[in-house]
Amino acid sequence: MTPIELHPRGQLSEAVLDRLQHGADHGPHGEDLLRVTTQQVAASSDLLRDDDVQFALFLLQASHYGSLEGLDPHLEWDPLLITVRRHIEDAFEAQLRHEVRVPELPAPNSAAVAKVLFEMTAPEAGPSLARYVAKQASREQAEELLKQRSIYTLREADAHSWAIPRLRGRAKAALVEIQSDEYGGGRPERLHAEIFAETLRSAGLDDRYGAYADAVPAITLASFTMMTMFGLNRRLVGASVGHLAAFEMTSSIPSRFIADGLRRLGYGERTTAYFDEHVEADAVHEQIAAHDLAGSLAEDRPDLLPDIIFGAAACLTVDGWAGSHLLETWERGASSLRERVLA
Fold this sequence. Notes:
By secondary structure, the protein is mainly alpha-helical. It has helices spanning 11-22, 30-43, 51-65, 79-99, 110-120, 129-135, 139-153, 158-161, 169-182, 192-202, 218-232, 237-249, 252-264, 269-300, 305-331, 339-342. The chain starts with 10 loop residues before the first helix and ends with a helix.
C-alpha cells in the first residue's frame, strides 16, 4: 500500500514536518525555528482557520499520540519542538478564551453544573449538519463527512484519556466508566475507533490514520488540536472534562440523523454501525458525564469550575464552526475539503 504522504501548508508546518520526519539536524535550527513560529503565529488573523499553524500543531501533537507514521519517536520530547508547541498552544488558547462565550457559572455542585450543561447542549431548532445529512446529502458529501470525522474518530477517546491520572475519586471513576465503553469494554472489535475504521472501509475509503490529514481544512484540525491541547496540559484538566461532557451530551441525536442519512443513500449496516452505536451509548454517557464526571469534579475541585464550563463551551463553539463549514460549502455546491487536495 502506498505510504501516506503529508504535505506542509506553509513555512511553519514545513519546518516542523521536516524536523519530525528527518531528525533534529534537518530544517531550521534553534532560534530560526522559534523565529518562524513567532512570526507565523503573530501574522495570523485567525489561528483556528490558519492552515499552516493548525497543521503544524496537529503534527506536533501527533508525535505524542504516535498516530502518524514517519515521525521520529526520539523527538517526542525534543525541547525545541515542545517550545514551539507551547507557543502555538498559548496563542491558540488565548484566542479561544477571547472568542468563546461562556455562560454564567453555576454553583459548584453536581445538580447545578449538570443543569447548566444540559441547557448549553440542548438541541436547537433550524438547520444543522446532521439534519442535512439525514435529508439532503449526496454520497460524495457523505464521504466527505467521513473523511473529516476520521481526524478525531480514528483516535476516539484518546485525547480525554490523558485526564485519567489527573483526577481522583468520583470524577476519575466516571471518566474510566465512559472510556471503558469507548474502548470496547475489553473487546478489541468493539473499540469505537475500530468500528469507525470499518465504516470507512465499507464506504470504500482509506481506514489508516492520517490518510485524509492533507484533505481537511484548518477548522477541522482545530477541533481536534483543541481537545488534544486540553488533554496534554495538566493545568487544563477542567477544560478537558468539560469538553468531554459536552461532546458526549451532543452526540446521540446527531448520530441518529447521520445513520438515517447513510441508510437513505444506500449504505448498509457495516457503514451505519458506528453511528447506531452512539445513539444508545451516548444517551447513557451524557448522564454520567454531566452529573458524575463534570458535576462531581466541580464539587470536589471548585477551583476548576470555570474551566469545566469553558471546556464545554469551547467544544460546542468550535465543533459548531467546523460543522458550519461543511454545511455552508455544501449548500453553495462546493466541497468542504481543501482545494489543493481536490486539484
